[in-house]
Amino acid sequence: MQKTYTNFVENAKIEIEKTKVSLEEKYRKETELKVEKVIRDYEEALKLETDDLEEKVAQLDEQLGEKIQEIAAKNTMRFTCACDRTKYIPCTVDLSEEENYFTCPDCGAVYKVVISASTILMSGITNNPKIANMYDGVEVGEIDRTPL
């Protein structure tokens, strides 16, 4: 009987150990699945955020391109070449440069456009007593709005 009891206890210990190992394995697998799900959710959220960022960057690039074209159009001038074959040569002027160079596509003549700025008083004289008499006799000018 003692041997049977000992066998029973040993078998019970073995079964408990098997159950313990089985439960640990089950817990490990469940934990792995949970971690994998968290990683998938994170990757999906990151992809959505990345897609949103890429879309925003594309929109900003498009807006920047439109602004650059708008600025270039405002800084474009036309002139007639002396060869008279090209009536109007459109050229974009870089206002950050003092001089701009352009070449006629027909005859190859090179033109230099010099950028200069001058000011014209467009309003009345201010009420500052220090300069009140400084501009006596100065007439207020008009803006020349004729297109180039």
In short:
The protein is α+β, with helices and mostly antiparallel strands. It has one helix at 2-74, and strands at 76-79, 89-92, 99-103, 110-114.
Written account of the structure:
The structure is a single chain. By secondary structure, the protein is α+β, with helices and mostly antiparallel strands. It has two domains: 1-74; 77-114. Helices cover 49% and strands 12% of the residues. It contains one helix and four strands. The protein has one helix spanning 2-74, and strands at residues 76-79, 89-92, 99-103, 110-114. The strands form two sheets. The protein has a two-stranded antiparallel ribbon with strand order 1-2. Strand 3 (99-103) and strand 4 form a beta hairpin. The longest helix has 73 residues, at 2-74. The chain is elongated. The N and C termini lie far apart (118 Å). 0% of the residues are buried. The mean pLDDT is 79.
